[in-house]
Predict the 3D structure of the following.
Amino acid sequence: MPKVDLASIERTSTTGYPPPFDKDVAGRHYRRLAPAHGLTDFGVSEVTLDPGAWSSQRHWHYGEDEFLVMIEGQAVLVEDDGRTVLRAGDLAAWPKGAANGHHLINESDAPCRFIVIGGGENKGGCYSDIDMMWDTTDGYVHKDGTPY
Amino acid sequence: MPKVDLASIERTSTTGYPPPFDKDVAGRHYRRLAPAHGLTDFGVSEVTLDPGAWSSQRHWHYGEDEFLVMIEGQAVLVEDDGRTVLRAGDLAAWPKGAANGHHLINESDAPCRFIVIGGGENKGGCYSDIDMMWDTTDGYVHKDGTPY
């Protein structure tokens, strides 16, 4: 059935972030939609942010493009150059390798939901505001390469 | 600017379909969003269907996954196994190689809009209801391989 039946797909709230960075995403819940539908050319997630929750620590990817479609509620997109409110129907695009970290924060009093698509090659990524990187061999590491 | 400014991106209504298959998509308008934002890992289009317009002739792809996010209005998804109404916030997924053609028809009295993502390798495609295929060398051809 090509129409996505969200209720049939497991929703998770886990994160691999080491403390204390995990706390900011405690109210983030997501479903991985691509595996459930046999898609392999890109990843697709449905993400819900409770009020106050962050989508991630602010980051950018070395090898993966990202695209976002806001479908419910609103959140604030935070980047190097400021803050932008995204509302239902708004879109955002992040090309790989652009060293301008991004994340969404739900500053409203209602949940928000968005669809995010990621493609390309996972070569790791960098977190803008904290001493953390994602290394494809070692996972979450400090910016000097030592592990958490 | 990662937030997509749709008004700044050219909107087109062209099609390469040979007559009479072009008439069904005459009320389809689209913007190519990926090139405007430097995305190369997948394609992204914003598509608007006027009342009565089709998204395409009913088709499936040999080498490309597709994913759709309805963001405004509603349309009917038509496939081998029936009709499904898609409303704002609804999602649909089509894995490459699944020989179940799909398209959307706007049967409502207001425009509808959706975002569609495509990835993978363009190996051509097949049209379910008409004597047409897409060949990566020859373009639109009859199912016996002769060109239009």
Notes: The mean pLDDT of chain A is 97.
